[in-house]
Amino acid sequence: MTTATISNQANAVRVPKREIELPAVVLIAWSVAGGLLLGGASVAGLLATDRLSAHAFLMMSVLLYMVGAGLGLVHGLALGIFGRAEGTTPRQAAGQMAHGTIYLVPALLLGWLTAGWVAALPIALHSHKILATGMLVFAWVIMAGTAAFAVSAGLDAAKLAYRRWPDRVPGTIGVVATFLALAVMVMVRRPQIWFTDIRLSGIGAVVFVFAATFWFYGPIITTGLALLRRIRPLLPVARLGTPRRWQDLLGRTGLALAAGLGLALLAVPFTEGVLGIPTEAARLGVGPAVVLALADAITGELALRLFLFTAVFVLAMRLVPPHRTWAVAAAVCIATLADMLIHWPAVPGLGLPGMAVTVSYVVARMAIPAAVFGYLFYRRGLGTAIAAHASAGALLGLLAL
Fold first, then answer.
1. pTM (2 decimals)?
2. Cα–Cα distance between 16 and 137 in angstroms, integer?
3. What is the dihedral of CA 367, 174, 220, 369, to 10 degrees?
4. Distances in Å between the alpha carbon of 202 and those of 38, 127, 289?
5. For residues 396 and 266, what is the distance between their CA atoms, to the nearest angstrom?
6. Spatial separation of the C-alpha atoms in residues 294 and 391, rounded to whole Å
7. pLDDT, tens digit, 9 for 90 and up, residues 68-111
């Protein structure tokens, strides 16, 4: 190798790269597209439906543009790290995105100017100004092109991230099952905002399903599966796959049905006599109640057992490694407390007579079932816990008819 060759190679190393890699492209595109859609298109929609004054549209456009750009930036960061190219480390992907911030600031400024024009389209249409309307339509074309480019880059990154995901088969099943379960839940009963009497509208329910699936359940399912894979030797029975023998499947099914029947019998007294708390089957019918019980079981067990139970177990094993029994007990207790906290807002509306009856109801309908589901998750896996949870809800409705 000659001295000139060595010198050229050294210069090549010292010269900074001008092109931007996929992580930076996703970061910039998603940030600008998020700002344009929220600060431009959504404000235009508010103006067109008379939900926003023309005097306040500019301020609202700026505020929503900042929020949308921030949300796009967060999603772009996640896609950039997890959807990096093969052979690229997370550190290198972070460096590529840091290099891309050189272009991010001017791109956001141009996007902010474009968002104002996009938001003003209803005003121009109302004033019948042809030239201004043409310019604003051109701004909408720019926004649409930016959004399409962001979707294309995001899909490329998502494909790489999915290919790299070691738990993509059970994870995909969990996410799809969650989406379907949430869709069923909002169709049967509109979701209520926690600790309030406000129920979401149709559009709000749709937004809730997508947001809860991809912003909440997607990350916790991914994290729960990763943690469970790491501690699989410590939990040999907490496997998520298909049982090896049909006898094992029958055994799990029988155990789940027996546990569900026992929990249903424990809850029947609260639906009879002077209390007369109506079940879902009595209010909605047997078919919808059974489907709703399955949906509740899927969403509840994925959040409380797959994620929370596993996370607490891992943390407890790190703090007290020799004591697995204490780790299991801590995981069951924390998941049970979380289950009770989630369902507590519905208790005051039941009109239970006195503290003693209220405590009995909470123990029989919340604490004991949650502890049983946690133990079944530890001993027989997620499928058994979901089956027991679903059968308890369905059998309660049938027994109380």
1. 0.83
2. 39
3. 0
4. 20, 33, 21
5. 9
6. 8
7. 999 999 999 999 999 998 888 999 999 999 988 899 999 999 99
